Amino acid sequence: MRPAPPPSLPRPSLGYMFDYVIRRVLYVIPIGLGVTILVFALVHMSPGDPLSAVVPPDAPEEMVQDLKKAYGFDRPLPVQYATWLGRVLTGDLGVSVARGREVAAELRIAVPNTFLLAVGGTLLGFTLGALFGGIAGYFQGSWIDKLATSFAITGVSVPHYWLGLVLVIIFSVEMNVLPSFGMGPGGSTAWRWDAEHLRHLVLPVVTLAVIPMGLITRTVRATVAEILNQEFVQALHAKGLLHRQVLWHVVRNAAPTTLAVMGLQLGYLLGGSILVETVFQWPGTGSLLNSAIFERDLPLLQGTILVLAMFFVLLNLLVDIVQSSIDPRMSRQ
Amino acid sequence: MTTAPALDGKPRAAVDAAQVAVRSRGYWATVALRVRDDKVTIVCGIVLLLIILSAVFADLIALADPYKASMLKRLKPIGTPGYPLGADEMGRDMLTRLIYGGRLSLFMGISPIVIAFAIGGSLGLVAGFLGGRVNMLIMRVMDIFYAFPSVLLAVAISGALGAGIGNAIVSLTLVFIPPITRVTESVTTAVRSLDYVEAARASGAGSLTIIRVHILSNVLGPVFIYATSLISVSIILASGLSFLGLGTEPPEPEWGLMLNTLRQSIYVNPWVAALPGAMIFFTSLTFNLLSDGLRSAMDVRL
Fold it and tell me: Cα separation of B118 and A47, whole Å?
């Protein structure tokens, strides 16, 4: 017997979906422009001279003026913005003031390392969260539900930079079984799939997984509980479907919301791993941001924030499109 | 009145009387009753009150001077006589510094939410009530802020402005204005189209009267609950900024900064180093549980 499609999912016409996707894609343009303006303004809001990182305080005034001209800091702000935007659009993020290397080159090393942590943390958090949330939602009100729910609220309340430190204390200081910092032996900055690098990955990934785990547990629990109380599930039972088959419908209905939460969490971990990267001295975008801030390296700061924000915007877009294609109810809003 | 049996077999008059009795209890009395039955919320409220009171009255409670360093007492373990929770990397009493640390950590965590509640609430109210172009303008600007993950936005703004308590509060306020505006806007838009608001308008009430009498009373509760749920995130982020060196500066006692400076000592005295983070965790957890309890007591759905 083949399971019938859930009655709550009427398929809208394909044209409607297409319209929605096009509108959603086009909306990325104004948002992207807004993001560039904000990032540009952010850096020009900062106190002090943008050149203070490279120019010694006793440098002759002439040299300062020449440098300002070379970097284009002497022109009016709108002109500076337009020039900067034009270069950014061609992939040129400028040169790091403190390191003397291209910002884009620095990012090509750092972004994959941050990606690795974020994807690992999201996948682990999703697996655990879906498991706990599914069980909790299925056995609503039981002790197992209460356990999973309190686990979830602990997960969203814990400062993850502190959790990372506690894990280091337990597994590196006290038990001495896992490395406490870095990505690989000898300060490696290029990831390799070997045992040493994987050992370095364990603690930061577990640390990052805690927040998505808590959030996904909550979402899945609420969604599963809500679906189980809906009439169509009772109808499926009444039709004589096996338990397993009903469960499939529940999964199918819970998937869109859960995937959306997961996608957004990946974005939050990508842009928000700076604290955890600092704890573990991970060579990713977090450490770039850190040195950019404390060395007042404005091009590096600008470029890193911009790239991370753009990833987040694109990820949001992807989540909306995927969600609307597997759950047609969404695209009607 | 006839006593014709209702569906469940009880006489109808009795059912009516019961309903009237329930309805005559006011909204806040109902909320208070629900809170009274919720042990978790009560315990969290008490714990939180203790944390806040001990931070406020730190001068009276703390036995030692939070700034007094001593080379001889550096990194004493938990349980050392005279140092119940050990001493930090400068030989300062941990218990004292944890009590004092609550002042800045709570202030830096809560004040951004209060300011963002005022600003974001007003923006959302205006956007939701006026609709049209104004709504478009306000909400599209908020969308741009939504393009940043909250940690990144906080770090970016306070990184650009430079370290300092004031700058950290400004950056966190900017992080929390967009979500509060969005929630206020959606609640206001929903309330605005309700029948009784239309009725008030039809009977000649002005915009300000409608906002003050009809909309605020329905919008404030849910938005307040939403804002309290953000406090725990705000405390974690505020201490996180100090942890990165972007908030408080030494030698001020503040939980995030203490965690940062003690980080170097985890191989000497690991568990003393973990204490400030435990304070951040407990405070954030109690705020979260309290907010959840209030939400279900006030029957708010967001």
Answer: 27
Token pair of A328, please? 């047609």
In a domain, B124, yes or no: yes
pLDDT 10s digits, A237-273? 777 777 777 778 778 778 888 888 888 889 888 887 8
d(Cα A134, Cα A138) in Å, to the nearest integer? 6
Please give the interface size between A and B, counted as residue pairs whose CB atoms are below 8 Å apart.
Answer: 135
Q: Write out the two tokens for B77.
A: 């373990």
Please give the distance of CA B139 from its chain centroid, rounded to a whole number: 23
Provide the number of structural domains found in chain B: 1
What is the CA A7 to chain-centroid distance, rounded? 34
For residue A294, the chain B residues in CB contact (below 8 A) are 245
A8 in contact with B, Cβ within 8 Å? no
CB contact set of A267 (below 8 Å; sequence gap of 6+): A311, A312, A315, A316, B149
Backbone angles phi, psi at B121, to 5 degrees: -60, -45
- Which ipTM score applies to this complex? 0.84
Question: Residue A4 — φ and ψ, nearest 5°?
Answer: -75, 155
**Helix, strand, coil percent content, chain B, rounded in steps of 5:** 75, 0, 25
Rama region for B234: left / alpha / beta (φ>0; ψ in -120 to 50; rest):
alpha
Nearest CA distance, A1 vs chain B (angstrom): 40
Residue A235 phi, psi dihedral angles, 5° rounding:
-65, -40
A278 and B CB contact within 8 Å? yes
Residue B10, domain member (yes or no): no
Cβ burial, residue A45 (10 Å; 0-12/13-18/19+): exposed
Mutate to test the interface with B, among A275, A298, A314 (most CBs of B within 10 A): A275
Res B250 pLDDT > 80: yes
Give A23's contacts in chain B (Cβ within 8 Å).
Answer: none
Confidence of residue B3 (pLDDT cuts 50, 70, 90): very low
Contacts of B155 in chain A (CB under 8 A): 274, 289, 293
> Is the minimum CB–CB distance between A78 and chain B shorter than 8 Å?
no
Phi/psi for B253 (5° steps) reads: -80, 120
DSSP A243: H
Q: What is the gyration radius of the CA atoms in chain A, in angstroms?
A: 24
Residue B123 domain flag: yes
Q: Does any domain span residue B291?
A: yes
- Residues 204 to 263 of A: which have CB under 8 A from any B CB? none
pTM of the model: 0.86
- Quote the domain boundaries for residue B276: 31-298
Instruction: Quote the radius of gyration of chain B (alpha carbons, Å).
Output: 25
CATH number at residue B71: 1.10.3720.10
